[in-house]
UniProtKB/TrEMBL annotation:
Keyword GTP-binding: no
The protein's name in its UniProt record: Guanidinium exporter
InterPro entries, sorted: EmrE-like, Small_drug/metabolite_transptr, Small_multidrug_res
One of the record's GO molecular function terms: transmembrane transporter activity
Keyword annotations of the record: Cell membrane, Membrane, Transmembrane, Transmembrane helix, Transport
GO BP, sorted A to Z: xenobiotic detoxification by transmembrane export across the plasma membrane
Family: Belongs to the drug/metabolite transporter (DMT) superfamily. Small multidrug resistance (SMR) (TC 2.A.7.1) family. Gdx/SugE subfamily.
Subcellular location: Cell membrane
Amino acid sequence: MAWIVLFVAGLFEVGWAVGLKSTEGFTRPIPIVLTAISLVLSMGLLGWAVKTLPLGTAYAVWTGIGAVGTAIVGIVVFKEPATAARLVCFGLIVAGILGLKLFSPQ
């Protein structure tokens, strides 16, 4: 269950990271509120997950999900470049996440 909670926390991390762009420098009230809600949910779920999972593993997986998810949104929504080198590097992050899941004591 902690892994599922951690995955959802990572998705909310993507939400607040992408939300930062939507706030346009914290000048738009509704995106600010949505970003803040996503941030609180992300941190809360991460906090719940670390009650069971090792802190270092949970944090690395959480940030990895956030980094790769945000990069995917950047490529798909904001038309950021999807070069082969970037995709390989994102793949390495995903491989690290999977490795941590496979070799974690929980």
